[in-house]
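Incident log, structure service

09:12 report received: a user says their structure output differs between two submissions of the same chain.
09:20 pulled the input from the user's history:
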Amino acid sequence: MQKPVKRGNSYRIQVRYKDLRDTATRDTARECEQWAATRLLELKAQYSNLITLQEKPPYPFRSLFEKYYLEVGRHKRGYTYIKQQLSAFDRYFGDMTQMSIHDITPQKVTKWRNDRLKEVSSGTVQRQMCLYCSIFNYAKNELFLIAENPFAKVAKPLKPKPRNRLISADEINKILAASNYKSGTTPSTPGQYVAWAFLFAMETAMRRGEIIGVTCNNIYKDYIHLPITKNGDSRDVPLSKEARALLDLVPHKDRVKLIPHNDNSFRLCWQRTLKKTGLSGLIHFHDTRHVAITNFVNKRKLPVEILAKVTGHRDIKTLINTYYNPNASDIAKMMNA
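09:34 re-ran on a clean worker, output below:
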């Protein structure tokens, strides 16, 4: 640090650290020295930050996503969703896919969220943000590439209200007709197996993925054992006479899996069926779970604590508020029965 130099009625001082420098003019030499001492500390901190930034090579978001999938994502139970998101990442995230993770800020994430909400539902954006947040947590906590997670600082959209739609008898008939499947017959084509699974789901309240994943060695006389379910636990699904009759239509003595479908082939067949019937966007396969649970209460008269065992719900509130949807007339009939 140079000494103050008198210039007319004032003093001028210059401070330098490495390649950084600054100057100031003050009324007295003492004021110059005080300023210089403070400014020197600031220049040292500024230089340190520059070095830190220079030591961070660009790391594209896409590269991080690919590494996350290989190291973490493909080992998760929901790997199919993560893989699908990765394959369509450029379409979902635009130019930011090639942006360095060091340059992605909460402000940029907020803009992406708002733009994305104009294209898809809040539920879709929330699920994507949860995935991206996990990826950045991996970069922060496992790879030590970043100090802060920009997705953790941005509010996620509110969850949409749970669906409460029941499938009508007419809609069931349309789906069976579009699949060329007649109730009570043995399915043979991929589309017919989807139609059979549709009926089976409405008798058991099993999820689509649970039906697809059933192996024949886990089928017993009056129940199906599911080694792992959505909440991570195993579950035994009791079979009604109607469900057992449907199960007996499918030969399962000479095969490993109950139905010859994986997640993707089942999804494509189901979407083609809905398109034929004009029900695309109106009916979801998961609506069969609403139908089954409503029938368990209205027709089978199952109490809620038993119903939770059947459906695999840990939280009875979720079961009551999301899946069981009686209307006022239904409740009145129960009261007067």
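09:41 both user submissions now match this output. Likely a transient worker issue. Closing.
09:42 reviewer note: The domain at 169-336 is CATH 1.10.443.10 (hpI Integrase; Chain A). The chain has 15 helices and five strands.
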